[in-house]
## 1
Amino acid sequence: MPSADNLKGWGMRRRYAGKHPAARLSYDCVLDPSYPRALMSFDYEHTFQFPFGERYQHRVIPYAKIEQEAPMGPGLYSWHFRLPRNEQDLERVPAFLQALFHSGSIAAEVTGNLRQKYRGELPLQTNAFDQGLSAALAPAFFAIAYPLYIGISRGLRGRLGCHKEQLEAAKTQHLYEPGPGDTTDDEAESRNFGQRLGAVFRKAEFLDTSSLFIKCVAYQQAGSGTEPYEVWLEQVMVDIAAAERTCNTLFHPVFGRR
């Protein structure tokens, strides 16, 4: 987020969210009238207003802020990785990304003419990182954020906190098993994603998890709602689960459901 003094160079103007001097500042994009308007503040909530009354809202949360900033209620979330900015970590990132995105070989079986069959390992011939990491890659990697995992939960903060807890343990332990005091992970919701991602960090010997971040869309019961919360929750989870299935099918996250 640019400072208030540098907003002019970003094509933005500052405005107060209220008349009181202590009111939180927010910013309107004014790059082009045809662009969607992005209202950004000092929290992690992002609202985009497109023409014709379209309005979209989601949160982008740094790894370190999950326990404080993740919504308490139900919603859909995705995990992402951004490139670190210090040179020491950047030198080690390509090996980590290769491990993260499974840049290795695959087992294949092919049937040809006359029922001939071929089976074996197919090594990957292309390497997305063989040209190194250009300066333009970091902002592009963040803006076009490929999902590591897409999931849903009845309680986002608890679920994401569970992922984080298991990830931190699994990145240093070869056979991580949840202890008696550990938060359990619901098989139907996340399939121990934190453990699987932690194993990649351990394998690549890249233990800095600060470059991870979360995107989430949270849902709240309308203030005028008359139905019991549990009834509303069951209904909204049906819709969220349908959205999750579609997103996993279309976007193929690295740790997606198979």
Note: The longest strand covers residues 55-62.
## 2
Amino acid sequence: MAVQKLYESQSKLFQPIKVGNMQLQHRMVHAPATRLRCLDNGLVMTDLVKEYYKQRSSIPGTLLITESLFSGAKSGGFSNIPCLYNDEHVEAWKPIVQAIHDNDCFVFIQFWNLPGELKVDYLEDQERLEKVTQGECPMDPTGLPAALGSAYSICGEELYVDKFMTKQDIQEHITTYTEAAKRAVFGCGADGVEVHQVNGFLLDKFVLNGYGDKCDPEYCGSLENRARFCLELLESVVNAIGQERVGYRISPFSDIWKDKDSFEAHVFMIKKIKERFPNLAYLHAIEPRQYWNGHVHITQEKNTLIYKNLWGDPFITAGGHDRDSAIQMAEQENTLVAFGRYFLSNPDLPFRLKYNLPLNKWDRATFYTKMSPKGYIDYPFSKEFLDTKKVE
């Protein structure tokens, strides 16, 4: 059955664009989304996760940004979060990346660092307790009790352990992050990596003064000092894999640290990054109408365009977009739109949006269902998409 093209299919949203070294066939991006389909030791469930990304790379020329991976043993603490700091992790991700490439699509692997808290049940067994007592726990600039409380939990698992972050700790993080980026690109075969300065996590916490002056003097106090960690990390990663293989994500409207200078901080960061790394693959910014910590934040008078204008091209916007807002945003020069919930519930999302087809509704109860295929690989493709595959 032929699918009738609609007027909207001529929107820039559905037109090709070059991002970094990649020639994409449209401007709809799979947004990074934590899903907990991973073993407790950080080893991804390859067959399950491969099927998920294989489904969502069903439209050739799509860019997929993965869920966040921990770059090192001291980066995290959540159970069921994937990691990429040893050969076993690399071997588990290789088939996933290959499945995406087999569908003529592209993949950037995102890395993150917790802002210092560990989940409560991290201390439930002796092996993990030894890791904590030996210093193998997430780093935080403060050494103070967790500032976020219940604001940082997944499936009710709360985090709490903090450790003061020395200059040596910071350099160690930069090294492990860089090694993980090299594993992603040269080991797993990914097209690039995304650096995560988002929603109050470690890099964001530095930039937004989430710790006051309780840190090494070189990395706290003035905005220039607070930005140093991120810029040094970016420089190290770029030197290792190339600017065109690196994207950068920010959440300029997040109020986790309630920094009164948040706007100035993000403007400073964007200008510095653009000045030092003009060929970075993209800037990825979250809109103020994001869904975060159980609440929908809608601020009509604010959007990410001011940051897009500072940055230039290419630019990815994410957070609460539907088809209409995506089409509108894509009219901006060299702008892409990332989808999270709609992409997880619609494996053929770019096809559905292009032809204005009904969308599957997501099941929020399965977002963080550990190691389960339910609500992960069982969302149906549209009949119209399946019909086109029959014709082929």
Note: Confidence is low (pLDDT under 50) at residues 3-7, 119-137, 139-160, 290-299.
